[in-house]
Amino acid sequence: MKAVKWLLILGGSLVVLVIAALLIIPAFVDINKYKPEIEKQVAKATGRSFSIGSDLDLSLFPFAGVSFSDLKLGNLPGFTQKEFVSVDAFEVRIKLLPLLSKDIQLKRFILKGPRIVLEKNKNGKANWEFAQARQKKEEPKPTEESSPGISGELPIKNLTVGEFMISDGSLLYADHGSGLKKEISDLNLQLQDVSLDKPIKMVFSTLLDKKPIKLEGKVGPVGPSPGKGTIPFDLVLNALNHLKATFNGNIQTPTEKPAFDLKIKVSEFSPRKLMKELGQEFPIATTDPDAINRISLEAGLKGSTMAISLSDGILALDDSTLKFSASAKDFDKPDINVNLELDKIDADRYLPPKTDTQPTADKEKPAKASEKQKTDYTPLRKMILEAALKIGDLKVNNLKIQDLLVKITAKNGVFNLNTLSMNLYDGKIKGNGTLNVQASSPNTKMDLAVNSVNIAPLMKDMAGKDLIEGTTEAKISIRMTGDDPEAIKKTLNGNGEIVFLDGAIVGIDIAGMVRNAKSALGLAEKVDVDSRPRTDFTEFKVPFTITNGNVKTPGSSLKSPLIRLLAAGNADLVKETLDFRIEPKLVASLEGQGDNKDRSGLMVPVMVSGTFSEPKFRPDLESIAKSLLKGKVLESEEVKKLLDKKEIKPFEDQAKSLLNKFLKK
After folding, report:
1. Buried b (16+ CB within 10 A) or exposed e, 312-349
2. Cα 376 to Cα 185, 382, 441, distances in angstroms
3. Which of 241, 454, 510, 517 is deepest in the core (most CB within 10 A)?
4. By the 8 A CB rule, do 475 and 451 touch?
């Protein structure tokens, strides 16, 4: 018993001596005589001036604390601002003895007037680069077995804070090379009811370029085991007099396996007015100057180190509403799922405005295929994807589309367009396809079927011209390899057939032109008519095959009451050349629209040659002459000279003079 008694007396005496020392030392030890040495060592370590204008105030019991004012860390030479960091006043007071039991009792934490200046000069040098700073040691790379979260537990059992405040803070960023300058001023942060078992009230406010930003709400309680439990939060952001957003959710086990569950709601605001408030031009040029003028957003967001997901998303953009959800997991080999459902959108409003200026041609020669940097498809080969897009009403390039549905899946570098369907102009288009990027050059396959599309309004909306009428049926199948236009053209293969039914070619009267060869060759006088010329047809069929970029149409045909028209030839997509022969035949009578019988009549073949940019059209004068000139006429020296010509131009004076002898009524 005596031993215990003496131990208690000894322990109590030691405690008294420690407390006495903590009370007496600050009174007898002048810490300010060490201030010049502190300033010297900081200046040496940072390579810039450092000073504390006031005396240092040190206390040890019952609260350990320090306070000072007028701290200044100088800027580097060559920058406009004198100080890099400055603080008007700082004070911290914390109870010392409770720290032994991991109980943090902070009486006061006050930081007044902190100011940080970040500058870049015209040479690109930044003032936050410390010339004399020691190089950081390379951190060991985490092993595969290490936890993705922060291991360990925060060394706190209890926390209470009496007063926590940061006031009158500011941050200046200036890039003298680009002229960019941003300033955050009047920064204030206040925390109330800071503890582990109560929600912490937070009020943060500042001015960004003199425009107000405020974030307020509650965070916590943190719980008795900080870092292991769930930390709820409920925050409201008001920014720049235009933007209001709420964030409600929680953070889970931040020191072990961090995860979060968040609900976001952004009230309707105008991005254009927001940028105007910031004194900046709107970064997106749109055809409609009122586009992107109203936006609101609601969504749920969940995430961890292994997965992230968006749910119940609603994005309102002007007059359109998009519902969306998405998820991604296994980030090393991303497994992505996306669902988008848009009610309507006029995409033309959001396209860049058209300009009258033509783009200047690049004088430099295009890079050779061997010099072209190849695309790395490795990320796409790793991706697993399931995506779906629905659009109720879509307008793009003035085309009007309804009920667009697109479904795509992908795995091991093979992207399958399982579904492509849309309604447009009283008809429907369906398709499917595949993009395979397993090899160094992607392989693409596409099949399309067109059913009962009304071609006249489609052409008028797309091209602004009334060219052809009727309903369209088509089947198209194409294959290609490569990812640049030249490679695609060289490897393009496929086949198909396009059929126009019960319509007309508007703007041209083929029957009239062919029956009167004088008109066809420009020999007859022009006659004004009240109605536009047109060629009615029951069927206009264009079958085709594509072999390594060469499009061949062996038997295109047009059936009309007065004419049968056949066309054959090819278009070389690689060389961009044309070689077609169009052979019309007049029907002897109007009887039998759609009649398949051969009719006798005058044939006036037309040759199409040249290039895509400069096509050439000419009647086949040799065929005309052979058809019209009989007997003695063939002995004419003028005819022989005409037929011996390697190139016959359709409207040469010589040809007109010769043919006029035989084509007069």
Report:
1. ebebbbbebbbebbbbbeeeeeebeebbbebeebbeeb
2. 45, 12, 10
3. 510
4. no
Between CA 460 and CA 380 the distance in angstroms is 39
Q: Which DSSP symbol is given to 657?
A: H
Whole-number CA gyration radius for the chain: 41
pLDDT tens digits, one per residue of 409-419? 999 999 999 99
Range of the domain at 45: 19-126+154-224
Predicted TM-score (pTM) above 0.90 = no
Q: Helix, strand or coil for residue 76?
A: coil
pLDDT tens sequence across 14-23: 444 444 444 4
φ, ψ of residue 433 in degrees (nearest 5): -170, 180
Amino acid sitting at position 524:
A
Residue 48 to residue 128: CA distance in whole angstroms: 11
Longest Cα–Cα distance of the chain, Å, equals 154
How many domains would you assign to the chain?
Answer: 2
101 vs 657: which has the higher pLDDT: 101
Asked if the structure places residue 387 within a domain, the reply is no
446 in any annotated domain: yes
Q: Does residue 105 form part of some domain?
A: yes
pLDDT range class, residue 146, cuts 50, 70, 90: very low
Mean pLDDT (the chain, rounded): 79
Amino acid code (one letter) for 129: E
130 or 643, which is more confident? 130
349 domain-assigned: no
Task: Note the pLDDT of residue 522.
Answer: 46
Of the three residues 207, 224, 241, the one that is the final residue of a domain is: 224
Residue of 476 and 78 predicted with greater confidence = 476
Q: State pLDDT tens for residues 419-435.
A: 999 999 999 999 999 99
Backbone φ and ψ for 488, nearest 5 degrees, come out as: -65, -45
Q: Which of 224, 257, 281 is the last residue of a domain?
A: 224
Residues contacting residue 29 through CB under 8 Å, at least 6 positions apart? none
For residue 561, whether the previous peptide bond is cis, meaning omega lies within 30 degrees of 0, is no
